Amino acid sequence: MKKLYFLVSLVISSMSFAQTFYTENMGTPTATTAINVHVFQNSAPIAYSGTGDVRATTVSTGYNGASGAGNVFLTGTAGKYFQIDGLNTSSFPSADIQLAFGYITNSLTTQLVLEKSTDAGTTWNPITFTNNATTGWNLVTIAGGQIPSSTSLSLRFTQPATAQMRIDDIKLSNVSASCTLALGTVSVLCDFFTLGTDTYTATIPYTGGGNASYNIVTNIGLIGGDNPSLVATGNIIISAIGEGSSLNLNVIGGSCNLSAPINSPECKPVNTLPYSEPFTYPVGSSLGSSQKWSNQNSGDAILVAAGNLTYPNFPNVSGNLISFTGAGLDCFSPFTATTTGTVYASFMMNITDMANVTVDLTETYFVGLTNATKSYQARMFFKKNGTQYQLGFDTNNTTTNYDAALHNTGEVVFIVMGYDFGTNLLSAWINPNLSTFTASTPANLTSTPAVALTELGGFIIRQDGDAKTPSMSLDELRIDTTIQGLLAVNAPAIKGLKVYPNPVKNGRLAIETAANSLKTIAIFDIVGKQVLGTVTNENNIDVSNLHTGIYVIKITEAGKTATQKLIVE
Description:
Number of helices: 2
Radius of gyration: 29 Å
Distance between the termini: 73 Å
Strand content: 35-45%
Shape: elongated
Number of strands: 41
Structural class: mainly beta
């Protein structure tokens, strides 16, 4: 084990050591946005223009400092461009000004054209750089000597032919031309993968050391590995960094003033089966910030909301629910990769408002089963139909496989999605009778993949578009390899709980517990609408106003919750 040779516990301000004097991460658009109306990270005197747009798809990843949010998209029409005016580089000599940016192209034979101007765009001159060698995101770094020292620098990024390109994380830095020390591509590795907050280790390779005395400063963690003051080529290693904490590393010495912003990895575990998700997270929190879920793409978050959805005979509803609408972040949750037998996923949903969905019969998928690498294998679709909606199910991103039943806003719908590896059959049950439901119950919708699925290992919740995804809530996600396990009834969470008589015949219901302390009682009808709610420490509840039928009663005492079917005669 290498010796820890330096530790700094104080937070160092970026003004003290950072050589970066301009950075632009493109902000976070909620939808595809024209450049001239998008809110960028920087404001006047810096100005942005162009014929591209800003998007929250295909987010930047894979390079040090990738912001993973919005990016400028240049479509396949030749001449699409992105321009930045009003940059001031006059405080630094041209030999020391470094330009870096994230770049992706879908055609290696058609590459970006980059130009500079110091006369407000009257005259443009090319900037040369090493073209991308892959069609993934790469960090382009242009060394000193090409970017002029000017009070009125403009940069223009142009897509010259029929390719698609994206730009992100543009940065101008002051890097001494006489500095021989160079930092390489940072790698990060989680030390553990648990449901708690883990730690991670960052490794920063370097070359050109051993010729000056360098001071290494970081805002967090333990500094170890090789010492660039003594070793020419090696690795600086920062350990014991808390998950979720970003790292700012500065190396100062000789004529060098280098920095490396390092983003935290997600050290989240794969959820074991059977998997139960009652969303027991703080109300208002982002689902993707929990340890079971990861955010995908960018935009507004899927949020945890107070309350629960209920469905007849569904056992032990607890925790909270989640809500979302329109475009935004998707959330992915991995589970034990399964390759044989069967896999089932169930959840309750309630579409509360469709006002934003302005076009009838426009479909979108809002949840899906994936493999371990997040590739969709099955999708559940929504399609507005007048004042109601339909549900569909398929492997592809479009479908004609819709259930004929029409559903209303405010209606709680219970859905089970399943796949049988042996028969290569996808099945979806919509509002099954849980008192008699088994794997042999005829499905509402089936689909046979053209290529048999080889693995299921993830569940994803999707926010598609502002005019596509309605306002909706989801609750009680469960995933297992059998229907019996999926709907297993747990013992009452409240000790000594008794609810009687059941069926209720005289309008009076008795509720007893071992503690007989203050209880919150809610009763819901068959479509999930709450019809009675009270907080009491009395044992007898008046239910005489309830009509004959089947209900769900939810009882909470001392932080524990139990849910049961209630029949009123």
